[in-house]
Amino acid sequence: MASRQVAIGSSVGLHARPASMFVQAATATGVTVTIAKDGGNPVDARSILGVMAMGAKNGDVVTLTAEGDGADAALDSLVALLERDLDAE
Amino acid sequence: MSELRRLLTGIGVSPGTAVGPLVIVSPPPLAPADEAPTTDPEAAAVKVRETLAAVAAGLTAKAAVADAHAKPILEAGAMMASDPGLAIAIDGKLQAGKGITNAVTAAVEEYCAMFESLGGYMAERVTDLKDVRDRTVARLLGQPEPGVPELSEPSILAAHDLAPAETATLNVETCLGIITAAGGPTSHTAILAAQLGIPAVVQAAGILEVPLSTIVAFDGGVGEIIVDPTDDDKVQLAERKARRAKALAGGTGKGATKDGHPVALLVNIGTADDARKAAVKDVEGVGLFRSEFLFLDRETAPTVAEQTATYIEVFEAFGDRRVVIRTLDAGADKPLAFADLGHEDNPALGRRGIRLGAIRTDLLDDQLEALAAAYKATGADVRVMAPMIATRQEARWFAEKVRAVGLPKVGVMIEVPAAALRAFDVLSEVDFASLGTNDLGQYTMAADRMQGELATLLDPWQPALLDIIAYACDGGARTGHPVGVCGEAGGDPALALVLVGMGSPACRWHRARFPAVRTALSLHDLVRCQQMAAAARAAQGPVEAKRIVLEMADKILLDLL
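YS: structure for the whole thing
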């Protein structure tokens, strides 16, 4: 199982447009990815409602996990996405 | 045909006449309480997924042709409907034996509760999520998705009430008029219809029982609706329309009573775009620039530089004409992601307006700094006022802040009865005041503006509201500082005469009402307006008050309503 930790780079946190961009990217990888905020329960990264309900703010560290073929590549691309200030783009 | 002819009455909220076939906007169906429990959760889960996919596809198709305002709302809905987490949550409810539509409703309810507890931006998404629920439940019940249907020909829309999202996507080309069974004169539907210039009537009991496609004729000024009109009805309505057009044709230029007493005709705007559109029209300036439009729907507060640029744009559009700007009026019912003070049980009575400004002085200070910079850059006739002032101390606190940054004129909104009753004290601290009749009515009558059933209490002709307005005007007069009028009351030509009679030197309302009010003023002298004000206040109720004033008025006024 592959796992990565990343601090949310988006200045508004992980909701609104940044959350949709993340969910779309996670769905596009075709790999089952979960996302969890420190100590919280992991949620399906393809679930916009689950991701928004986490309430991850700017600077919060989240853990991404995935299994199977392409797991590492998928996580690397998602980490790169979350590090950016998506709202400013 | 003619034996079916019948009359319905409501409250006219947007003048103009319309004749056309009726299209009924059905309310969203609820999950039936007596629904059969789920016995085959696997089959139900498949059906739920198919239905959610159909809802998502429908929203995506709508988003593809929507304007920039509606597009993100529809796209967000499509994404929610495609959410695998939502489908799994519904599975859980199905396995527990809930009926299929009740399972959808219960799962959505859990997400709504979660979002509401997060507050701010998240709480606003509850509306989108409930829309997805309504569409899904309707499809599962074999009914069409709720909302405004595609209009294949110009039609009159009838609904219980229209949600803001529904009115935002209205097509002005095909919507001849709007009739709602609920709603009130200050509801979203009423305000939006008046802005778009679409005739509208609210509180029209019985309209939803009229069969689809029936021809309906109505007058959005007086609130009269004729179902299955005769040819005579149509001719009369057309004649009325022509008389109105004729009465309005002459009016241009500055507003004044028949004997030359000036009454400033001012518009309300929310954005720089509004300002550019309004400035080219025959108006004397801006009576209310609602600055919160700069702040709403944003994740972070606009910077001083960004605000300054917008204010300069607005001031330049109006040249040497006055621009009255209201500082940020947000609070618990209009939550801002960056200034969320948390849940309040009673937002209309909570920390809104200047009360929020006093807690988040950083927001107010930034706004005043930007206004001062824009004023220095343009030398415009800028007048800054605060929302929700209740006491003299609040007025003084605000006035000191405004004067400290070098802005020339400071005022307050009078929308809290306390400020109206103590107008002499409050106006002693500032240069002017503006009556916000919608909120003043709500607080005077203890009746929620958004509660359509309370429309009678919220009628701006209520003698108690007229009394309290008169009190505010008298207090202002004793200080020598003017008290203008904001709010829908200023848009009723007959009521405008009453307000002028009480001593209000300026009215602002939406542009669509301008010609009618300008003509009404030109037909009556100040003494007559004062007599009307006294007669209206002597009346025992709103209907009587308006009737007496109309009896005293020039007959041409009847065609302006």
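YS: worth flagging: The first helix of chain A runs from residue 16 to 29.
IM: good catch. Also Chain A touches chain B through 17 residues (CB under 8 Å).
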